[in-house]
Amino acid sequence: MTGTTRELAEWVSATCFDELPDDVLARTRTHLLDTLAAVVVGHSRPWTRRVLAYAEEQSPPGNSMVLPAGPRLRPEWAALVNGTAAHGFEIDDYALPGLSHPGCAVVPAALAVAQDLHAVGRRLLTALAIGYEITVRFGRATTPSLTSDRGFHVTSVLGVLGATAAAASLSGLDAATTQSALGLAASMAGGTTEFTRTGGDVKRLHGGFAAAAGVRAAALAGAGLTGPRAAIEGERGFLAGFVEHAAPEELTRGLGRQWMLHDLGIKRWCVCAGLQAPLAVLGELIERHRFGPADIDEIRVGLDGPTLAHVGRLGPRPADLTEAQLSLHHALATKLVLGGNDPVHYAAFERGREPEAVAEVGQRVTGYLDAGADAVFPRRVLATVTVHLSDGRELTATGEAPGSPRKPMSAAQVRAKFDRLTRPVLGERADALLDLVPVDNDLKEVPGQ
């Protein structure tokens, strides 16, 4: 593993726009748009408002905007707020097999630094692609051991490295300085998954923590602070500290020749990524057989072990919205009783007025370990849903989520999702966010880019 940190840093500092394949550019734009929608959905949530109040108190005025139209702060603080918003309502992108949520860390960090440096177009897209690639590769190298063996949250632990890479690229750091930035980032990585057991707001902040720390790591390295030369692969380095069973070869195999962005997925519904497949399969059964909550005796959902551990323990009566969006029982009941899993369907829960029928139907949901799903995890997240109806019928189907790497959404579907999520919040003002997504006219050759 000797030299892994250096090799990653050399690639980050040397990669330029002309080396980005067309499919990487297209995917990067799509995920930027999707993350902007996630920020809009999350920006008015109580945890984001509290983080914003804190950031405004601490940050002097700057060039980096708190989205969608908030104050301009220094980059680290804007990244903290926007990252919290992006991860704040369970609608941000994800990766398989890495299981992290790259966009909520990489996009806020890159946008904050880009706005501060007035770096748009080619430089922004290059940095985003680099940040996503680094995050995805670290996911491949550490999943599922990072969470399953140690209980860390992949989004915050890995996101800081992707955010640092994006910020370093935009800042024009050379290889040695980028190596130090990654070393500093490794010491700022953290975040546990105890929220899946005992709740709390902290999960919402993990995207913001990673984004802000990435900006900070690149800035400190640029100011001359150094990190360990072998921060990733060393005897006491990142992999040794966070992972029981690592696959370090995934970090550099084919680096620069084989992009891993095909691992990225886009959520259809604002719940945990592990709940997307069960909701998709249940929706197919409902559409095919036309049944409702009153018709159901029991719903059994077969999942892989790590996903079941992540979403299967909170039950039908979650204590707060975080638990609601991580609960298998509650998510399926919400779809059956309220008709979906978009922000509008969680509004009643937020107001404390959710129908009792949601909890009652949730009590009829059971999760179990499915050997077939377990065998393909984490490359795929499969769900087998069996519905026992009161008329004696048993309906069963197996599938995976729309938007997952094997069932990607089209650009048109992602744009439709953007409109569906942003227009109820911003109306026509949502179109202004599209200016943040570089188009072909933004990508003409510009000196220094």
From TrEMBL:
<dbReference type="Pfam" id="PF03972">
    <property type="entry name" value="MmgE_PrpD_N"/>
</dbReference>
<dbReference type="InterPro" id="IPR045337">
    <property type="entry name" value="MmgE_PrpD_C"/>
</dbReference>
<dbReference type="InterPro" id="IPR042183">
    <property type="entry name" value="MmgE/PrpD_sf_1"/>
</dbReference>
<protein>
    <submittedName>
        <fullName>MmgE/PrpD family protein</fullName>
    </submittedName>
</protein>
<feature type="domain" description="MmgE/PrpD N-terminal">
    <location>
        <begin position="6"/>
        <end position="249"/>
    </location>
</feature>
<dbReference type="Pfam" id="PF19305">
    <property type="entry name" value="MmgE_PrpD_C"/>
</dbReference>
<feature type="domain" description="MmgE/PrpD C-terminal">
    <location>
        <begin position="269"/>
        <end position="430"/>
    </location>
</feature>
<dbReference type="InterPro" id="IPR042188">
    <property type="entry name" value="MmgE/PrpD_sf_2"/>
</dbReference>
<dbReference type="InterPro" id="IPR005656">
    <property type="entry name" value="MmgE_PrpD"/>
</dbReference>
<dbReference type="InterPro" id="IPR036148">
    <property type="entry name" value="MmgE/PrpD_sf"/>
</dbReference>
<dbReference type="InterPro" id="IPR045336">
    <property type="entry name" value="MmgE_PrpD_N"/>
</dbReference>
<comment type="similarity">
    <text>Belongs to the PrpD family.</text>
</comment>
